[in-house]
Amino acid sequence: MKRFLRIYCTAASTAVLLTTGVAWGAAGERTEKVDTVRLGERIYREGILPSGVAVQAIVKGDIPVAGSTFSCAGCHQRSGLGAVEGEIVTPAVNGAKLFEPLYYGRELTAAERTGLPAHFRSPPRRPAYTHETLAVAIRDGIGATGRELSSVMPRFDLTEQDMNALIDYLGTLSAAWSPGVTDTTIRFATVISDQVSPEARDAMLAPLESYMAFHNDKARVHEDRARYVAIAQEQDLSYRRLSLARWTLKGPPDTWRGQLEEYNRREPVFALLGGMTESDWRPVHEFSEAHGIPSILPLTDLPVISDTDWYTLYFSKGLYQEGEAVARYLAKRAGTPDCGLVVQVYRDTGEGHALAAGFRNTWQTLGKRSPHARVLPPGKPVSRDLLRQIAEHDKPAAILLWVGAEGIPAIEEAAVATTRPGTVFVSASQMKEALFTLSEAAREITAISYPHRMPQDEAAHTRAARAWLQSRNITPDGQRIATRMYSLLVVLSDIVPKMRRNYYRDYFLDLTGMVSGHEFPDYERLSFGPGQRYASKGCYIAELSRGPRPVLVRKSEWVDY
């Protein structure tokens, strides 16, 4: 058995990035083992055979299903560490667990196993799997003890070659700790571009650094108990100090990838926490994806929109999500196949393109006529009569004005024109406080995409965050930086203890998908479902009330994407 494990661990450490299956050998190096592991990885994660067809399986004794519907990762998680949901326990299937005996109670350390008297050592709950007994379990549902496994687990129809590929991959899955973890410390980093103002940078760093200090203050207690107590509690054995590095990005975004590579080469980290840039987050996203480094809740309005990438978890789709919500709201309000012409006015910038793409892609998916676009060069003033001219010439059902405060004079002009647009949509994230300067006439035609909880509802949901911040002399700011960092830290404080001694990046992300039962500030709801990369999944459409002191009021319920 030791020889069996050594084969897998050697293959994993020399050829494969354990959590992702990416080759680490010399350029061009391709070994048969690496190829086999990669084929097994696809079977495990997607339920797809090397031939490209879905694995065939049976559940509940006689119900045929496609493996792409019931993939191994769907239940056992991407990390292979399993999960507990209600009364359903899905066991770990990574190599370090499968190919060792499973005992009742807490897993003992090697020192405890050798130091305990024989009469204290309980018999194993099940023996270690071998290649042969594991193949029987996967194909026929008979476990290593000879007992039948739950009928919920599919029985997979795999050829000998495909079975070998899957078992080879399981041998490498979560078999050694991810980079950034030592016997005493888990290393994290946060990414900040040099364009970020000192005030915004400090608002992000203060909660992070305060949490790290608080966590590390408790480390000595756990370390002492783990050192001197004969059989220490799991929380003591698994407790690690946390460190936070600042990765500051300088210069234009096209140089950031190289800077990130150098930071990671000098001192690899387990994950990235928070982070801020004034530009597209894409360089950091692509770096995380390439190296399998989790990036948790960066503060950005320009996330990467992807259905397949895994390693970055965002608060939301940012500006893209506001455009998306407007499309769904308009389509639902119209209630007819043809909602009329929609014109989008936006700048040729990352922000403008994100809002326009969110609306356009969703609108077309809903089967609507493609919107017209008026693209403004960066820096060019918005003509005061632009919206009036569009209303007179195109007669649109709605105009989407995706610019900031500079667009307000154009709304004011359109509001009093003879031919005025039915509705002008704007983004609260772009307009900010300037929204509240709109005249009453302009308010009548203006609808606002608002991605946060409504202001009048916030007080009841932010007490815990504000108390925590104020106890550390941190003042919540108007940009929601400190309160969003509080949400990140709630998630982190939930995940870190649950990792126990399973310091694998994919497991860190698997646990993130199970976070529940917390009340978060800023967003109407944050849900971290398995495999979901965007925690807030909607937006309000709002309008301004009448009177000298306008407030935001709902035009819609929460618009989900």
Describe it for me?
Helix content is 40%, strand content 14%. It is α/β, with parallel strands linked by helices. It has three domains: 2-172, no CATH class; 185-312 and 459-522, Response regulator (Rossmann fold, 3-Layer(aba) Sandwich); 319-450 and 541-560, Response regulator (Rossmann fold, 3-Layer(aba) Sandwich), CATH 3.40.50.2300. The strands form four sheets. Strands 11, 12, 13, 14, 15, 16, 17 and 18 form an eight-stranded mixed beta sheet that branches. Helix 11 crosses helix 12 (282-291). The model is unreliable at 1-31 (pLDDT under 50).
Quick tags:
22 helices; 18 strands; 561 residues; Rossmann fold; alpha/beta; 3 domains; single chain; globular; five-stranded parallel sheet; eight-stranded mixed sheet
Helices and strands in order, then pairings?
Layout lengths: L1 H14 L16 H15 L9 E4 L3 E4 L5 H5 L6 E3 L2 E3 L4 H4 L11 H6 L15 H10 L14 E3 L2 H13 L12 E9 L4 H20 L1 H10 L5 H5 L2 E9 L6 H11 L4 E3 L8 H10 L3 E2 L15 E2 L5 H16 L7 E6 L2 H16 L6 E5 L9 H9 L3 E5 L5 H8 L8 E4 H4 L8 H6 E5 L4 H4 L4 H9 L9 H19 L5 H8 L25 E7 L7 E3 L4 E2 L1
Helix pairs in contact: 2-7, 8-21, 11-12, 13-14, 15-16, 20-21, 21-22
Whole-number average pLDDT? 87
Q: Please give the domain count.
A: 3
Under CATH, the topology of the largest domain can be stated as Rossmann fold
CATH class of the largest domain: Alpha Beta
The gross shape turns out to be: globular
